[in-house]
Amino acid sequence: MFDIADLPDTDVQLAPRWMPAVEADALFEALRADVPWARHRLRIFGREVEAPRLSCWIGDPDAMYRYSGARFTPEPWPAALVPVRDAVSAAAGVRFNSVLANLYRDGQDAMGWHSDDERELGSEPVIVSLSLGATRRFVLKGRVADADGRFARHVLELPHGSLLVMRGETQARFRHALPRTARPVGPRINLTFRKILC
Ligand SMILES: O=C(O)CCC(=O)C(=O)O
Ligand SMILES: [Fe+2]
């Protein structure tokens, strides 16, 4: 990787120009057309709601995943994603066996506060997030206050072709979210690569 920014006091790195723009353009179009996008139903405080985005769980056949009260059998890897999975795995030093793909159609689509801390990811998961399409704001917020009673907060812009790596205690120490925006923004695809411990 090149041009990597380390977020201070975290185990988070961002490579803003990880994938060349022409490659990222082609991947965006291939995924938009080939992924069986669906609106996932999530359970929040015991209520079923439709997620404000389109999603698809993709992975090896044995990489079963539970997420917000739902269970997902993975869709097979689309051809366009196989070399990307291998390059992302090489960059992070982790053999990823699954990916959650999200399509944010416009600024009204979003993802609420959460940590990627499901048990099947192990105690200190490496999560690698590849962003394609419109630049959106990604926010990390500390789960516990520091000695001064303040909650750490980091705001990152995730541009087309950027790679965000979260390691170590990141999921234990922070929640993250992709907020809605009133700005006119085009569609964005995000891929969070994960290693499910089968
Ligand atoms: O869209 C993003 O950048 C965040 C996605 C995310 O947090 C997730 O899939 O768990
Ligand atoms: Fe996440």
From TrEMBL:
Residues 95-197 form the Fe2OG dioxygenase domain. It comes from the Bacteria. It holds the Pfam family 2OG-FeII_Oxy_2. SUPFAM superfamilies: Clavaminate synthase-like. GO terms for molecular function: dioxygenase activity. Keywords: Dioxygenase, Oxidoreductase. This is Alpha-ketoglutarate-dependent dioxygenase AlkB. It comes from Luteimonas fraxinea.
